[in-house]
Amino acid sequence: MALRGNLRDFTVTQLLNLINLAQKTGTLILDGPADQAYVAFRNGKLAHARIGNEDGGLATILHQANKLNPNQYRALSARLGTMSDKELGLLLINAGYVSQEDILFDLQAHFTNILRRLLTWVEGLFRFEPDMPPPEDRINVKLDLENLIIEGSRQLRELEELQDEIPSLDLALKFTDRPMTNLNLSVQEWRVVRYIDPKNSMKRIAAAARLNEMEMRRIVYGLVQAGLVQLIRPAGAEIPLNPRMFPTQNREEQRGLINRLIGRIQKL
Amino acid sequence: MQNVKMVITGPFSAGKTQFIQSVSEIEVVSTERKLTHARERAVKETTTIAMDFGRITVDDNLVLYLFGTPGQKRFEFMWEILSEGMLGFVVMVDATRPETFREARSILETFRAYAPTPYVVAANKQDIKDAWEIDDMRHALRLDGGTKILPCIATDKKHVKTVLLELLYSILDEMGANK
């Protein structure tokens, strides 16, 4: 039976646990709402990971980790051509730019960060391809999954708590009357704040700010806790009273019905 | 015969069954069972597992039904069914148990998502010394100024009537706003 399904039924953490326990080799492909991710494993250990079209090349990773300065990075990028990451790694080690330990450390940190992001994916499809081994032209690592699984379980609990606090992203946000001065907001929080408008549902804001559900809930929870925003029904989509509330669709009869109820309860 | 319904919801042991019993003209059709969880048994002996069901006959042609939801999260699947076609809902909160406020907020938001109908919050057990002040509860429950939060003693018919009337006034207001 192919290992495939929906992330709503089987979380990324549960998938990592399964791959770890079964010591699987192959590639886990996740189709999220915005991106696709490829995570390769060898004997139940993380070997390689990449999300969408992000440049996961060795030169970029070392540059992001400040192991290559901008000039070195530009020069290398211009000359890379068809050189594989393995060849580039050897070249850099031989030239004394970095050590083998540096490369492995930075790759592990990069792949771990990718997996941390994937742990927050709650929507999308997954499939595990046993015939797709870790990419040979890339440098692979051998990273134990246990710590990531524990971290993922913690995030899962956090998500459940956030879902209790903010059960639906169909509601909109509105600023409270409190003045917003001396606020230290993160980049992600600013991205949410700039879209706050009674017409925008949280779902719409999340899509515009490219945030997944958990990131959106976490940010909104913080803003609500700080008393800066409150949840309201989207203004543009003002929902009329459900016609099925009343046994009659005539407005005057509906009003009369409510007044009869009021009269009866007053007399109780 | 025309039937309408209101839903009384809230966390476990908030006083929903008692609220309905105070005004129902029939013995409340209750689906209570003995609690199996020791932690919950410490609070009360039995709980509602499907719904409570009370009735107020208005006249020959109109009956109001009051449905009480089970409070525990594990019965959440019942909530959406019960909320179908309701006139509005009352969120009962035990004002003496702040540990349930977070759950009350969650229930309120869940019901708001199910049905955009008017609602009021009833701060129950106001006759108990430890009950929180209404203003403090408004902050703790993060209710905006437009949401009615009413002091309540579910065993006292007068209080229950006031809560139901305020909900009906909110429905009338909403009907006016949706003209």
Written overview of the protein:
The complex is a heterodimer of chains A (about 270) and B (about 180). By secondary structure, chain A is α+β, with helices and mostly antiparallel strands. Chain A folds into two domains: about 160 residues, no CATH class; about 60 residues, Arc Repressor Mutant, subunit A, CATH 1.10.10. Chain A is about 45% helix and about 15% strand. Chain A contains ten helices and seven strands. In chain A, the strands form two sheets. In chain A, strands 1-5-2-3-4 form a five-stranded antiparallel sheet, covered by helices on one side. In chain A, helix 5 packs parallel to helix 6 and helix 6 crosses helix 9. The longest helix of chain A has 20 residues. In chain A, about 25% of the residues are buried. The mean pLDDT of chain A is about 85. With about 180 residues, chain B is an alpha/beta fold. Chain B has one domain: 3-Layer(aba) Sandwich (Rossmann fold), CATH 3.40.50. Chain B is about 35% helix and about 25% strand. Chain B contains six helices and eight strands; from the N terminus they run E-H-E-H-E-E-E-H-E-H-E-H-E-H. In chain B, the strands form two sheets. Chain B has a six-stranded mixed sheet with strand order 4-5-1-6-7-8, with helices on both faces. In chain B, a hairpin with a 2-residue loop joins strand 4 and strand 5. Chain B is globular. The relative contact order of chain B is 0.19. Chains A and B meet through strand 7 and helix 10 of A and strand 1, strand 4, helix 4 and helix 6 of B.
